[in-house]
Each structure stands twice: as C-alpha cells, then as structure tokens.
Design a protein that fits this description.
Length: 735
C-alpha cells in the first residue's frame, strides 16, 4: 500500500504541475545542449536534427550546485598519465579516494564513500560484487573512452538517482560518431601508450570508428599492468600493489533525424590485482555487459531510455606476496554477481520558463558468494562455506522534478523521489556444513537460517535548490536535500563469527573483522549546502568559489565493538558489527583560479588552487567517523602556448589526527608533494611527460588504511605508504 500511495501522489503532482503550467503550443525551448531552438508551434515545419555532442554544457538538473563537470579536453592530461579512473577527479573540490587497489580506488565525496556515492557508467548503476569491494563500478572503465565526467555532491537532483547520501558520479563514454552530410564515410581513431617508471607500469589503448550518416561502429580497447610500486625515500617496496587489466567494448549506433540508438557490448578482464590494505588479493575478475540507449527529441521535449545487463565472475585468494595459493593453501573466495535494469526519463517543456522531468528506474542485483574448501584442511573444509547464498537486492524508483526560471537571474529545482528496496537471501552453511564447527558458529547458522531475512525499505528523497545570478560578478547557489540509502547485501547478510571469516569482510582497509546485521535500517541524510561564486564580469580572468556544507544522518551505518582478536602475524585487531548510529558531517571547500597573463608572446598562464576541509562525528559513540580526510589542497601554475601545455603543482595534506579508535585507525603525518608535467601536440601526435613526487617524499595515505601486504610479507605493520617518485611518459596518435 505504501508504494502505491507514493506512486499515486506523484501522478497527482504531475497533473497539478501540468494544470498550473499549461502547454501553449507556441513556446520556444532549447532541446539540445548546444542551444539549438526548436519551434513548438502547430505548423508542419520539419523538426531540426539534434546535435549529438557529448561535451555540451549540461542544463540545471545535471549541473546543479556543488557539481563538477569535466569535458574531454580537460580530461586529456589525466587519462594520458593514469590508469586509475578515479584520477579523473583528482584535485577537485571535496573529492578524495580510498587507497585500495591501483585501479580500484573507492570514491569519497565530502567525507562519505563507496556505496554512499551513486556511481553511473553510461547510465548503469553498478555495485561492488565483493566482500572487500575490489571491483567498484569505476574499475570497469577505460579512462581513454570517457567523454564527460561529472560529480554532484550532496544536493543531487532526484533525476540523478536515489539510494545514496554523498552524491552521484556520472561518467559517459563517447557517443557514436557519424559522417557529415557531405561525406559518405567517416573513419576516425586514436592509439596511445604510456610508461611509468615506478612499478614499471605500461599500457596501451586505442579506438576506431567507421560510420556513415546513419550507422556507426566503434571498437575501444585497453591494456595495462604494473609491478609493485615503491614508496618514497626509505619507504621500500609496497607489497601486493601489482595489477594487470584488459578492457574491450564495441558500440553500434544508429541516427535518424532526432533519434539516436546505440548498443554497447563490453568485456573487462583483470587476471590479478594486489590489494596492499587487504588480507586478500583479486586473482581474477571477469565482466561482460550489454547496454542499450535511446534518445529522442520531439517538439514537446525529450525521452531518454536505457536498458542494461552485466555479469561478474570474481575470485579472491592470495598472490605470491601473501604466500600464494594452491589446492591445499590459501583462502579461495568466489563471487557470481548479476545486474540488470532500466531507466527512463522524459523531459517535458511546459513553457519558456518551466520544465518537468518524470522518470522510472529499476535495478536488480543478484549475488552468490561462496568459499570453496581447501584440500586436507580441517579449518576450511570439508564443505563449501556459503557467505551469501542467492542474495538479491532490487530497487524500483520513480521521480518527478520541476525546474522553473522565475526571472532571468533566478532558477529553482524541486524534486521528489521514491525508492522501493527489496532484499533477501537464502539459507547458509559453514565449512562444517549446517552444523558448524563449534557452538558459536552452529548458533550463528541456526539464528540466520531461522530469521526473517526478507526486507523491504520504502525510501523517500526530496531535493530543493536554487541558483541566483546576483550580478555579473557574483552567483549564489544552494539548497537542501533529504537522501536515503538502504544497507548493501554485505552490511545486512554476512553472518560468520569466527575470526577468520570476519577478517574476510570489510572494504575499509583497516584489517579488522566485520559481521552483518539483519536489523539495519536505511540511512537518512539531511544536507544543507551553498556555493558562493565570485568572478570578474566576463568570467575570464579570476574566480573564487566557497562551498560550506552540513549533513546530519539518521541511522548512519557504523559499527559496534564486539571485542578483539589476534591475526596470524600476532597483531591485535577489532571484531566489529554493523549497526545504526546518528552522525554529522560538515566542512568547507574552496576553488580559485587567476589568469596571470594572456598574450601572443607567452600564451596563457593560469594559477589554480583548491582547499578542502571536512569533519565527521558519530553522535552515538562520540568518536570521529572513520576515514575523514584531513585539511588538504592543491596549488598549480598552468601555461598554454600554442601546441604546448605545462603545469607545476604542489599538493599538501595536513596531519591526520582525528581518527576512529574502535577501528584502530592510524594517525598519519602531513606532507607536501611537488609534481611537474607537460604536453606537446604536433599534427596527429601528442606527447605527455611528467614527474610525480619530484622530491621522492615518503608519506602515508590518510585514507589508505593499513599496509597488510607488508605485514604478511615482512611482519611490519604500518599505514599504507604513497607512491614515490615516478617518471611518466605517454604518446597518443589520432587519425
């Protein structure tokens, strides 16, 4: 009844908005982001063709306050120098990352991470099918194939997804290319390769498109690998940090007048990836996906629709640095995950000043997580350990969103969303079968199998925001959002009580052991945020953005302390259980830029900087929230002169003193890193070169957790060290 009630309310809201703002048949509206206007009269004049360009400026709903929008040109310097897709957002306001695998960092927005961030790759909402979250959505992406990358923090429009608190990441691959009207066929492509001295990292990527005016076929592929990297001066090798990965995808596109269809089939294969802050490594991760898209422009508005499917087969064990694995040793863990879903959004132009967006989405996530027995091992055998057996998490969401331009200088956005999250899982058993290996495990298996495991959460989101162009030199943006997130399958359904089983659960890199909680409630976050944007009247010379924010979270999923345990390396760690607390997160981000010079002799010189500060407190146990990034910032001098571009950069991070004692979170010293880089373009060739961490500074990642790979290999426990000096070079050829 609750779900029907929400849908009925949204239907009446739609009717009310339509009655207040009737369609007049004569309004003009920009239906493409390149400012092409379509006449919505009742004449028979033909509708202009849409301009399919993925780098156009987004509208208010996809470029809200607190958002970062990066186009392809701004991404070139990043993708040519890093195989980690999270580096797309490096040095941006309020953005950081959990140090995990080299190509599997977890995103952090204003102090909230991982599942609290809704991550979309070409409209696909992908969850991490792993108890250590070794395969987050962004790890399936080839950075060279990115056309636009957006991060929306906190106050996210309801049309950009629910079931999240921190915000949304929306990454779009390049749209299909088509031949121009005066050409019969288009052939276009790109090939690139790179080398990094630290870890001897190498990689190559390429794409090719063959198209006519209506049909387009594109192949895109990449490969990269690296050995273990070295920390800064005196830090030595960081064990379990090597990786190898492949990505391939093929896109078929069809364009007719104002309609675009595309179908992408892709495959990702990571034969191995070390995780220095986990007990386990990834020994294989294979994914195949199909993603279909339709976009149509009409005289009344637009329709966008997607349907997708993905299967992931994932295996974890121990690579050689952690002892290796065979039929009789190691710790085999297998996962089979499947995702399927759709999302549909209709944009209705009510009149010159009012736009209505309505939509629906559905996501199914199915998961089997089982641990095969080891031969001749009484502890891990003789039966299969079922961690999550036929688990599923289904989410059905519907939304309505109204954008209004009251006067030329004031625009507002109001949205409502309902997400129905349905979760369940089958019966489980341990290595000793359903009877368990001791009284504690037998009790855990019995309690889990006899409990009511099915849960349905009815979540409700509201977003209200405004943008006011006060004058030519000052713009104010701000708003309020109520966001909800239900627990993931691991937070709710992991059941093992033995020290070994508990240490296998957790994506925090802290070495502790975790157990789920069937009684978890959805998180509900209330965020207030604003942005003050000061700039010169022409927005060409200088700009200063100041962005304070505050979030209070009811039922924040944190942990309770159950006791301590010892590892095989004789190190004490904590036994923790997920539970609902209350929490608050607040902070301030700033970004600055100033054009120092602009002339024919020296080109353009731009000074850029940003500062980020965040605090998080658990209001139940009064501890600091885990993994709060200390005060940090970047200052860079960038020069652009014809085919040349260069940068000198300094990154600083303050001492990390606010830590969570229950998770034994390490304190880390502050540091400053210096980097230099440049690129030169000559006809079809582009050469990139850089030196990262010029001084070979030894430092520790504030969000890197503990270096467990070092602990297992050398019996030395330390915070995870960062990357030492690296000489990088990349060459790209376009045709």
């Amino acid at each position: 009844m609750s779900y029907r009630w929400h849908c009925t309310c949204k239907f009446y809201l739609f009717l009310l908005l339509c009655s207040l703002y009737p369609y007049n048949g004569k309004a003009q509206k920009n239906i493409t982001q390149n400012k092409t206007s379509l006449s919505r009269t009742n004449t028979t004049a033909p509708v202009p063709e849409i301009h399919i360009e993925s780098e156009d400026i987004p509208d208010f709903s996809t470029n809200p306050p607190n958002s970062i929008f990066l186009k392809k040109d701004k991404l070139k310097d990043i993708v040519n120098n890093s195989p980690n897709p999270m580096d797309l957002f490096k040095n941006q306001m309020g953005i950081s990352q959990y140090g995990a695998g080299r190509i599997a960092s977890l995103p952090v927005i204003n102090g909230m991470a991982d599942d609290r961030v809704a991550t979309f790759i070409d409209g696909m909402r992908i969850n991490g099918d792993c108890p250590n979250h070794m395969n987050p959505a962004i790890s399936y992406l080839n950075p060279h194939d990115v056309a636009t990358a957006k991060i929306m923090a906190g106050i996210t429009p309801v049309s950009m997804g629910g079931d999240s608190l921190a915000g949304s990441i929306d990454i779009q691959r390049k749209d299909p290319l088509f031949a121009e009207k005066n050409k019969k066929i288009l052939i276009k492509g790109e090939a690139s390769s790179f080398y990094h001295s630290n870890g001897s990292g190498v990689g190559t990527a390429g794409n090719i498109t063959v198209a006519n005016k209506h049909l387009s076929l594109r192949y895109n592929g990449s490969w990269s690998q690296s050995r273990n990297y070295h920390a800064g001066s005196g830090g030595g090798k960081v064990y379990s940090s090597a990786y190898k990965t492949f990505n391939h995808d093929v896109t078929l596109g069809y364009k007719k007048d104002n309609h675009l269809f595309s179908l992408t089939y892709g495959q990702s294969d990571t034969p191995y990836e070390g995780f220095p802050n986990q007990y386990m490594d990834m020994t294989n991760n294979r994914s195949i996906f199909v993603n279909g898209k339709y976009k149509g422009d009409f005289d009344w508005g637009t329709i966008e629709a997607r349907g997708y499917w993905q299967r992931v087969t994932h295996a974890m064990n121990m690579l050689s640095n952690k002892g290796g694995h065979s039929a009789t040793k190691g710790m085999p863990m297998n996962i089979d995950g499947r995702t399927a879903g759709y999302n549909v959004k209709a944009t209705v132009f009510i009149d010159n000043h009012n736009t209505l967006r309505i939509g629906s989405s559905f996501d199914h996530s199915g998961l089997n997580d089982w641990w095969p027995p080891l031969q001749k091992n009484m502890m891990m055998g003789p039966h299969t350990y079922h961690n999550i057996n036929n688990g599923h998490r289904d989410r059905l969401g519907n939304f309505a969103e109204w954008e209004a331009q009251w006067i030329p200088k004031v625009t507002t956005l109001l949205g409502f969303r309902n997400d129905l999250v349905m979760m369940n899982t089958g019966r489980i058993s341990g290595y000793q079968g359903i009877n368990g290996m001791n009284a504690e495990e037998r009790k855990a298996i019995h309690n889990f199998n006899t409990a009511n495991r099915g849960h349905t959460d009815t979540n409700f989101d509201v977003t209200a925001m405004a943008r006011w162009t006060v004058n030519k030199s000052f713009t104010w943006e701000g708003g309020y959002a109520r966001k909800s997130r239900s627990p993931n399958l691991y937070e709710r359904y992991t059941w093992g009580t033995s020290p070994m089983a508990m240490r296998m659960i957790g994506w925090f890199g802290d070495g502790n052991g975790y157990i789920g909680n069937l009684n978890l409630k959805p998180e509900v976050g209330n965020t207030v945020s604003t942005t003050f944007d000061f700039h010169d009247p022409h927005q060409d010379i200088w700009e200063v953005k100041v962005q304070p924010f505050y979030t209070y979270i009811h039922h924040y999923i944190n942990v309770n302390y159950l006791g301590s345990m010892r590892t095989r390396q004789n190190t004490t760690v904590s036994k923790l259980q997920f539970d609902n607390h209350n929490a608050q997160i607040y902070g301030i981000n700033t970004a600055e830029s100033y054009k120092l010079w602009n002339n024919k002799k020296y080109g353009q010189g731009i000074l850029k900087g940003n500062i980020n500060w965040v605090m998080g407190q658990d209001r139940t146990n009064h501890n600091s929230l885990y993994h709060m990034m200390p005060l940090n910032g970047t200052l860079s001098l960038n020069e652009y002169f014809g085919p040349w571009a260069g940068r000198i950069e300094a990154n600083f991070v303050n001492t990390k003193s606010q830590v969570d004692p229950m998770r034994r979170e390490p304190k880390t010293p502050g540091y400053v890193l210096f980097n230099i880089g440049g690129s030169y373009t000559w006809r079809m060739l582009r050469l990139d070169a850089s030196i990262e961490n010029i001084a070979n500074k030894k430092y520790y990642l504030p969000l890197g957790g503990m270096s467990l790979g070092d602990l297992i290999t050398t019996n030395e426990l330390r915070a995870l060290p960062g990357l030492g000096r690296s000489f990088n070079i990349a060459l790209t050829a376009s045709f």
